[in-house]
Amino acid sequence: PSRGRTGFVIKTYGRFEQFDIAPADGLAARPGTWMSDGATRLRIHLTDGRDPDYTLEIISLEKQVLKLRRL
Questions:
Q1: d(Cα 37, Cα 33) in Å, to the nearest integer?
Q2: pLDDT in tens, 27-70
Q3: H helices within the chain, ranges in order?
Q4: N or C: which end of the chain has fewer CB within 10 A?
């Protein structure tokens, strides 16, 4: 059977929301923040503190498709 997919939303004013697979295969939202770390990187902090901060690198933005890589 198909399982849930993780994801995230980059919001305005430095807000961030990460979606993890919940125990019942739904999605569990985890709020956080993002800040610019140079011209092509975003530093992510999840407010629950369960995981360390991480960086997303912007690979490209074309036709309203943002491609990122987690470092």
A1: 13
A2: 899 999 999 999 999 999 999 999 999 999 999 999 999 999 99
A3: none
A4: N
